[in-house]
Amino acid sequence: MKENDFIVQVRNVSKIYRRGEEEVHALREISLNVTRGEYVSIMGPSGSGKSTLFNMIGGLDTPTSGSVLIDGFRLSELSPSQLAWVRCHRIGFVFQSFNLIPTMTALENVAIARIFAGVPPAQARRDAAETLERVGLGHRLHHLPSQVSGGQQQRIAIARAIVNKPSIILADEPTGNLDLHTGEEIINLIGEMKATLGITIITATHDMKMLSASDVVFWIKDGQLERSARKGEIKIEIGTIDGKTLA
Amino acid sequence: MDEPSLSPSSREIPDQYPIPWSVAFQVSWAGVRRRIFRSAITMLGVVLAIALLTYMLITESVTDALVALNLDDLNLLLQKAGVDIFSASRVDSMTILLIVLSLITCLVGIINAMLMSVTERIREIGTLKCLGALDSFIVKSYFIESSLQGFLGTLLGMIIGLVVAILIATIHYGRYPLAHFPWGDALSALGIAALIGILLSIVASIAPAYWAARKEPVEAMRVEE
Ligand SMILES: Nc1ncnc2c1ncn2[C@@H]1O[C@H](COP(=O)(O)OP(=O)(O)OP(=O)(O)O)[C@@H](O)[C@H]1O
Ligand SMILES: [Mg+2]
What is the pTM of this model? Predict the structure, then answer.
């Protein structure tokens, strides 16, 4: 596979957190590649380093050693302003706890991301309305986050993540705060974004249902890549996965 | 780690678009409006301090004007109200001390209230940075927010101070204060109060705004429930 088919490259990334005397090795020399346009799930027990890895890929935190490349650009070589540009235009973040701005309506929450991309406010609101329509919330434009359900809040967050047409959605446990049924709807919606917009999806999850939507699954454990599997191979292994991670 | 860079030149990635003040203003104004109760608490300190200042200044110019009239029955009323009609200056050092103290308290109050509201919104700031907000946007929006609260508080304080000063003067001296209201002096008194109020709010906004901008986007990812 050609080098530039990989939209995300993680190369020998280590992350050590220091709490006084104690050192926590959250990631140990982890390397992995994500192919453009694929749906990637990262699985692993609690504390295995999934969120730490996400923070590195999103350029929210810097590795202790190793490097992360997005679209071939080494994040560590970018200025804070360029990094903000990458977060704005290339990456759509989806959070476990939705992270909507409580004082902004659904429309404003989505429009603000568009405004950061340099779009004039009036146009930003039109784009936001269109995107909310796309995620099935055309009838909730002027509601505050507190006035809609958790599933709907996550839909707003997904609209916010895709409004700038990013190449990647980074979703750390997007269904963690949702019930089973709503979680499934959100996974389907994220899958749809991959299918219709060609966005590369990277999610972390404990949720076995996520796996059916995935093209690739990476298992990480103690900050290391334990193994990976592609779509065809996943089903065969599910029995063992079940036994391993859900035990 | 030190392998030669295979990446294309990082210069190909543009700088992030800086949000203009006008747009930051729209965003912050909406926030202040929706958090009106919270904003009111922040404003309260400014309102009280500026009301006191305005009251003192207006009362002084009204008494000055009445003393200048030099009418017998009015002089009697003035003396009954404890005004020394023969002295040129009627503001004693205690009053000035009181005003200065109230202004300092107000300054500390705004800074404290703003720092608290930044702490409450660490996750919000982190989220905005994940969406591509630059530090400069965070500085702008928090600066605008606390200045706005300062301006509104100043305006409200001036109105309250003016109304109370006229009310009390009318109680003491009947129809004279309004009939001979010193418009010019009162206007410059209001100007001084406005200037001090606005200056105070701007000075108090700077530290919280920069503190807010230093919050890291990683904070947004952390789940605290
Ligand atoms: N800011 C931090 N300071 C110190 N240690 C940290 C910090 N963040 C994470 N860690 C530690 O790093 C390790 C990996 O944490 P991480 O949050 O990446 O795990 P995770 O796989 O996302 O877990 P979960 O499934 O519970 O979300 C854990 O041992 C955690 O305690
Ligand atoms: Mg996590």
Answer: 0.86
